[in-house]
């Protein structure tokens, strides 16, 4: 692990392999370890960089400065420090929001955009979004982060054969700083691209799961609004597809990258 000072904070990251850059961005309340099943696979052919976003893992945890916009500027400054001019951005869940914002704000950095079980408008998801915001805030305030980590992890990995995945994710989640997690969550739920989505020209690949929190139709709807996007749905998978179906995910992403 290494640290880079970018946008007034320290970002912890790992850097493996050589070639075109794949930048892998993790989900809310997690760390770069979301990508443990992707790094060995893709670092054979690419330079694979994983980092902990602000407020997460071993990166800085500011008191008040959170939000997708800030995380996006962190990533831009991080790439500038490494003198990387272009990368394929692969964003899972909250990481997908950061990847989307990067493609909207700084398209010259984004060679390809890969969005994994995420969306372009967390602030406009209808009843699903409203319920998630109110129920999670209430859960955090009444039961705390440790219980929330247990619940999220069980919902993501409920099968008997997924116990090890569940326990590993729960451990990552409960190790969060409460304030950093809370502010990351509420600012994420206040973020959206709106009409900027249609203006993104970048070649885009959206990967969804058949049992994700949001239905397949949700992904189909926003993919159809984009200039240059395709969609792949992975079966027998919940929200954490990069973790619960890594072979299928890696295969689909490799196919997309091979057809550049």
TrEMBL record:
Q: Does the keyword Cytoplasm apply?
A: no
- The AB hydrolase-1 domain covers which part of the protein? 21-129
**Which Pfam families does this one have?**
Abhydrolase_1
Which InterPro entries does this UniProt record tie to the protein?
A: AB_hydrolase_1 (IPR000073), AB_hydrolase_fold (IPR029058), AB_hydrolase_sf (IPR050266)
UniProt keywords (A-Z) are:
Hydrolase
Tell me yes or no: is Hydrolase among this UniProt entry's keywords.
yes
GO MF terms listed in the record are: hydrolase activity
PANTHER family attached here? HYDROLASE, PUTATIVE (AFU_ORTHOLOGUE AFUA_2G14860)-RELATED, MONOACYLGLYCEROL LIPASE
Protein name in UniProt:
Alpha/beta hydrolase
Q: What is the lineage of its organism?
A: Bacteria, Pseudomonadati, Bacteroidota, Flavobacteriia, Flavobacteriales
